[in-house]
Structure formats: C-alpha cells, structure tokens
Amino acid sequence: MTYDLHIIKRFLMGYLLLTGGLIIFFVVLHYVEYIDDFMDRGATMKEVFFVYYPNYIPEIVRLTSPLALFISAVFLTGRLSQKLEIASLQTAGVSLYRLLLPFVLVGVFVTGFMFWFNGWIVPQTNRTRIAFEQDYTKDAASGAEYANIHRQNSPGSIISVNFYERNSKTATAVTFQSYTKDGVMVERIDADRMTWIDSLSVWRLLNPVIVSFQEDGQFERREVVRLDTTLSIRPRDLARTSGDVEAMTIGEARDYLDTLKRTGANRIGQSLVTYYGKYSYPFANFILILLAVPLASVRRKGGQAVQLGIGLFIAFVYLALMKLIEPFGYADTITPITAAWLPHILFLIFAGLVLWRVPK
Questions:
Q1: What span, in angstroms and rounded, lies between the C-alpha atoms of 328 and 288?
Q2: CA distance 152 to 262
Q3: pLDDT tens figures, 224-268
Q4: CA 140 centroid distance within chain
Q5: Which of 67, 166, 187, 214 has a CA between 20 and 30 Å from the CA of residue 84?
Q6: HEC profile for 152-174?
Q7: What is the CA radius of gyration of the chain?
Q8: How far is Cα of residue 356 from the mean position of the Cα atoms in its chain?
Q9: Using CA atoms, how far apart are residues 149 and 160, in angstroms rounded to an integer?
C-alpha cells in the first residue's frame, strides 16, 4: 500500500506539472498567433486574459490530458527502471501487473473525471470561447455565410434555414415545423425571408405560408405579408457551424442530433463524430497509461531519453491516427461511431500486445 500511494503521488504530481506546462505553452503560442486579430478587432487585454483564455484553458486540458499522463507515466516508470527498482521488485516476486496497479487506478480516475469534464464542463466554456473567436478573429469572421441550417427552437419545434447571412442577420427559405410529443406534425410555416429586428428583439418573416394540421387529417392554409415572432433562437445561434457540438453537453448534443436526423438533415457526419468523441476521447487517458508503463519498464541503452523519444513517437502516432480517421467519418466512408472509436480500439489492442510481450 505504501508503494502504491508513493507511485500515485509522484504520478499525479508529474501529470499536474506537465498539464500546467502544456497550458502555458499553448496559451503563449495561441496568443502570439492571434494577438494581431484581437487588437485589430477591438478586443481589450482584460477581455483576452480574463474572459477568453480562462475559457480556452479547459479545452487545452481536455486535449492534452492523455499526452500529459503518458509522459508522466513514461518518465516515472523510466526512472524506476533505470534505478533497477522494477528489476528488484520483479526479482522479489512482484509481477509487472502488480506494479501497474497504481498507474491503472490513476488512469481509471482521470478517465472518469475527463469524461465528466469533457461532456459537461468543456462545452460550457467552449460557448464563451467560440463566441469570442467569432467576434475577434479573422478565421471565424471570414465565415459570414451559412447554409442548410437546422435548429431546435423548443421541444417539438424545429427550424430549417436554406441560407443565412450573419452580417445582415437575414435567413432565406425558412421552414418552421411543430410536432406533438408523438411526433405528429401540427403546424408548418414556410417563409421566403426571415430578418432579425434588433429594436424589437424579434424575427420578421416575409410572405409566410402557415399550414395548420387537424387531427381528422384536414388542414388550414393561410398566407400573410409579414409576421413578427419571438423565438428562443438568436442570430448567433444560426451562425453556429458544424462544430456546434463542441459547445454542447452530451445531453444537448444528443437532442440536437436527434433533431437533425428527424428533419432529414444531411452532412452531419462531422457533428456525429464530435458527439461520439465525447465518449471515446477520455479513454485515451487510460489506454496511453497501459502503453506507457510496459514501454518504459524495460531498461534501454541510452536511458530515459530513448524511452521518452520512443514513447512520444507512439503517442503522437496515436493522436495523429485519430485526426486521420475522423474525415472518413465526416464523409460517411465509415460510420461516425467507428471513426470515433477505431483509433482507441486499435491502440488498446496494441497496448495489450506490448504488455503481453514485456518481461513480467
């Protein structure tokens, strides 16, 4: 037990230090790249450092956590190996599986924590981060036009927009569909154009056609010149992109994707891959620990530098494989759920093989 607590303490300390270092590195790198955009578009230093970056840090933690765990595990296990502590314990009859236990315990805890963090906390901060980027960076601001938009206004109410122009806050070819809890359509509104009126905080529909459906199968059709309506959806909501799911909790993303499927929306592969990634990505924390310990437990000529180099190469191959496979899910070449889980399954098998082959 003393050994386990000692390893857990050192492992977590290394993980936290590495995570802090990676946060500083990526914040500085991002700041150097985007400071001109921030200044040109009127963002103040207070907004940048007290609004934007505090909400950007959780995303950095989410992305770098597996790498920080991996490096910490390689470094700690490598030191134990170079000092012959692992060899001494194995000589005394302690197997590598037993030595792996404290690492596994930390891996299970961090994986569970990151699942919660990735699924519910990061989306909250991403909303602020993405909104800030839309206002103050050229990359986001250049995308002022959006097509084939589907949004859920409220439970049972869906809005579809053929084209939306963000600067004028104008949508064209707009359709509203209202359903009962049983999924039966009760009303449909089609409008040529919909414009946001700032002074009234309403959407103005031009030439809407309103069709109301009755329980007996009959329907009533009305045409009006103009209709002002209040919606839960604001202009910023229509300007969201296929990365919307990043700013949604798991429950919100599930409801959103169900809405898209129900409206017959196509090209939602990227959103689906992102959604399934909320479940799969946290497991990278656990898998990389399973890979790091057996890799670093064997003494190598060249010491820890060689172990760390080999480990980093494998870790980056793992992370790169995720990015390489994702586009196949976007295009439905493979199913989105396969694109989200396949890299993790492959490296879990690889980690099992490495663990099986190293001396116990």
A1: 24
A2: 11
A3: 999 999 988 888 778 766 557 888 999 989 987 887 776 666 678
A4: 18
A5: 67
A6: EEECCEEEEEEEEECCCCEEEEE
A7: 26
A8: 33
A9: 6
Give me the amino acid identity at 288. Answer: L
- What gap in Å lies between CA 69 and CA 18, rounded to an integer? 8
Alpha-carbon span 215 to 307, nearest angstrom: 71
pLDDT digits (tens, 9 = 90+) for 14-43: 999 999 999 999 999 999 999 999 998 899
Q: 161-170: which pairs have CB atoms within 8 A and are 24 or more residues apart?
A: 161/194, 161/238, 164/238, 164/239, 166/235, 166/238, 166/239, 168/195, 169/195, 169/196, 169/198, 169/235, 170/194, 170/195, 170/196
d(CA 14, CA 72): 5
Q: How far apart are CA 214 and CA 180, in angstroms?
A: 12
User: pLDDT tens-digit profile of 290-335?
Assistant: 999 998 887 777 677 887 888 889 989 998 999 999 999 999 999 9
Looking at this protein, which amino acid is placed at residue 86? Answer: I
Q: Could you give the CA distance from residue 179 to residue 155 in angstroms, rounded to a whole number?
A: 8
Structure tokens given for 144: 């002022």
> Which two structure tokens, joined as six digits, stand for 223?
């045409």
Which of 322, 250, 249 shows the shortest CA–CA distance to 283? 322
Contact (CB, 8 A) for 157 and 177: yes
Residue with tokens 């093989």, as numbered in its chain: 353
The CA-CA-CA angle for residues 264, 270, 276, to 5°, reads 100
Amino acid at 13: M
Residues 6+ apart with CB under 8 A from 112: 282
Count CA within 13 A, CB hemisphere, residue 81. 27
Structure tokens at 307: 């172990």
DSSP labels for 51-85? IIHHHHHHHHHHHHHHHHHHHHHHHHHHHHHHTTH
247 secondary structure, DSSP code: G
Q: Cα separations (Å) of 29 from 24, 32, 60, 128? A: 8, 5, 12, 20
Question: For tokens 């980056």, what's the residue?
Answer: 316
